[in-house]
C-alpha cells in the first residue's frame, strides 16, 4: 500500500521539461534537414567519387546524424531505449522489416544501419525539411507502384540492406499490425535473408494522428529486439509468386502478433 501511494504521488516525470525538450528536438530535426540540403550535401557533392560513393556518403551522414539525434533526445530526458541484436543488422542483401508504432522508428533503424536503403513515405520527397536527405540518399518513395517494387528488389539484388515497414504507416495504438503484401513480394524477388525487428514503445507516443505536443505522463521507453532470420526461399518454393507472397505475408503477420503479445506479457518498463 505504501509503495502504491508513493507511485500515485510522484510528479509527472518532469512533464513540462519533457514538453520543452520535445519541442526543441523537433526544431533540431527540422533545422538539421535544411542544413543537410542547403549546406552539407552540396559540400559532399564536391568530393571525388562515383555515384555509388556519393550515395553511401549521404546515407552514412544521415545515419550518423540520426543516431546523434537519438542520443540528444535521451540526454534531454525525452526517452530511454534498449536495442538487442543490432550487430546482426546491415548484412548484404538483408531485408530488415519492422512494425511501426512511432514516428521515429526509422530514425532508430537508420541510425544503427547507416549503409541501408529504405522505403519511405512518398510525401517526404516534397517536404522542404526532408526532401534533401531522402533524395541524396536515394531512398525509395512508397507510391505503391510496380516501379517501387522493382527498385526495392533491385537494391537488395545489388547487395544493399533494405529497411521497410510492411504496414506502410504507423500502427494505431491498441491494434495489431496489419502488413501489406508488397514487402513480402519484394523479399521473394530480391532478399537473401529477412530479419525482423520488433519495436515496442511504452507508453505510446508519436502515433498516427497524434500531435508531437501530446506527450505521455512519463518518459517514453523504446525497445528494439532483432528477431531470428527468415529464409525467403523457404516460401518461394511453395508455389507461384502470388501464392508464395501471400503465405510469407501471413507468416510475418502471425509472427509479429505472437512476438508483440509475448513482449507485452513478459516485459516491464525499466525505471529511468
UniProtKB/TrEMBL annotation:
Presence of keyword Transmembrane helix: yes
Keyword Magnesium in record: no
Transmembrane portions of the chain: 21-45, 65-85
UniProt pathway annotation: Lipid metabolism
Keyword entries, A-Z: Acyltransferase, Membrane, Transferase, Transmembrane, Transmembrane helix
Domain called Phospholipid/glycerol acyltransferase: residue spans: 94-202
Molecular-function GO terms, alphabetical: acyltransferase activity
Pfam families tied to this protein: Acyltransferase (PF01553)
CDD domains: LPLAT_AGPAT-like (cd07989)
PANTHER family recorded: 1-ACYL-SN-GLYCEROL-3-PHOSPHATE ACYLTRANSFERASE, PHOSPHOLIPID_GLYCEROL ACYLTRANSFERASE DOMAIN-CONTAINING PROTEIN
Protein name per its UniProtKB record: 1-acyl-sn-glycerol-3-phosphate acyltransferase
Amino acid at each position: 500500500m505504501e509503495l502504491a501511494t508513493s507511485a500515485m504521488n510522484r510528479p509527472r516525470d518532469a512533464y513540462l521539461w519533457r514538453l520543452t525538450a520535445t519541442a526543441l528536438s523537433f526544431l533540431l530535426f527540422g533545422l538539421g534537414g535544411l542544413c543537410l540540403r542547403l549546406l552539407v550535401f552540396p559540400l559532399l557533392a564536391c568530393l571525388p567519387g562515383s555515384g555509388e560513393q556519393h550515395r553511401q556518403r549521404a546515407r552514412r551522414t544521415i545515419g550518423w546524424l540520426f543516431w546523434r539525434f537519438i542520443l540528444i533526445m535521451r540526454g534531454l530526458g525525452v526517452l530511454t531505449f534498449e536495442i538487442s541484436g543490432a550487430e546482426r543488422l546491415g548484412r548484404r542483401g538483408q531485408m530488415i522489416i519492422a512494425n511501426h508504432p512511432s514516428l521515429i522508428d526509422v530514425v532508430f533503424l537508420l541510425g544503427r544501419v547507416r549503409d541501408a536503403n529504405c522505403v519511405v513515405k512518398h510525401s517526404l520527397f516534397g517536404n522542404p525539411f526532408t526532401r534533401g536527405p531522402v533524395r541524396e540518399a536515394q531512398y525509395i518513395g512508397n507510391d505503391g507502384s510496380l516501379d517501387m517494387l522493382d527498385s526495392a528488389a533491385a537494391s537488395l539484388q545489388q547487395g544493399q540492406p533494405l529497411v521497410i515497414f510492411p504496414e506502410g504507416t504507423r500502427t494505431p495504438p491498441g491494434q495489431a499490425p496489419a502488413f501489406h503484401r508488397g514487402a513480402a513480394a519484394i523479399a521473394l524477388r530480391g532478399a537473401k535473408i529477412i530479419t525482423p525487428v520488433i519495436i515496442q514503445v511504452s507508453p505510446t507516443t508519436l502515433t498516427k494522428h497524434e500531435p508531437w505536443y501530446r506527450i505521455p505522463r512519463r518518459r517514453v521507453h523504446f525497445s528494439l529486439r532483432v528477431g531470428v532470420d527468415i529464409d525467403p526461399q523457404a516460401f518461394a518454393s511453395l508455389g507461384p509468386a502470388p501464392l508464395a507472397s501471400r503465405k510469407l505475408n501471413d507468416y510475418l503477420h502471425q509472427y509479429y502478433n505472437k512476438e508483440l503479445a509475448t513482449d507485452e506479457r513478459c516485459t516491464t518498463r525499466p525505471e529511468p
